[in-house]
Structures are given as structure tokens and as C-alpha cells.
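Q: Got a minute? One more chain.
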Amino acid sequence: MVTSRALNIKDQLYGDLKDPAYASAYINEAIMDGDEAVLKTALADVIRAKGVAAVARKAGINRVTVYKTLKPGTESSFTTMHALLKACNVSLQVLPTEPRSATRARWTAVLIDTNLVACRRNRVNPVPVTNH
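A: Always. Here it is, folded:
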């Protein structure tokens, strides 16, 4: 009975992880933990939810390489991890850990304006910028 419940929880998690917003929040939490094994486990969950073969194909990586990359304790290149994240429709974003100064706020405004101009030129939605 316990195994059945555990399978239902895993199935529900995999269903939720098919949503890129949920997957990105899940991976962000793993990154915040600061442990590479936790990150690889979270990324492995997202990849399994989306289908290992499909993600490998989209990332341009051999399926066996995907399994090796996600194995805790193995060395993984940034390029491979980035390709896997991109294939899962999520990306990394770097944010400051300290409050912004007035100078940083002005640069953010410039970056936001540049982003909006670039997005209008390419007819895509701008990337949201969060203030911390």
C-alpha cells in the first residue's frame, strides 16, 4: 500500500513538472539548496517527467550521456547542463543577493528599456525582471 501511494505522489510530481513554470521553480529550489546532488536529482525528475528520450533528442545529447550527466558524483559540463535545461524549457537566471544601490537600479532600468526595445523589434514578450 505504501508503494502505491509513493507511486501516486511521484506520478503527480511528474505531471506537475511538465509545466515549465513549475519545473523552473522546482529546479530553483534545488539550486538554492547549494548541493550538486540535489540539483541533479531535481533536473533528473524534470527530465523523466518530460521523457528522457525526447529531452535528449531536443538537447542534441545521447540518451546514455543524459543518464551519466545526472548521476550524482559525476563531472558535468556547463554546456551539457545548459542544453538539458533548455531542452526542458527552463533557463538559469542570475540575481543579486544584496539589495540594489541607486546605480544598480538605474542600470536595471536601462536593461529593462533595452529588453523592451529588443522584444518589440523581435515581436516577443519581454522577460520579466524581479526586484529584490
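A: The chain has seven helices and no strands.
Q: Perfect, thanks.
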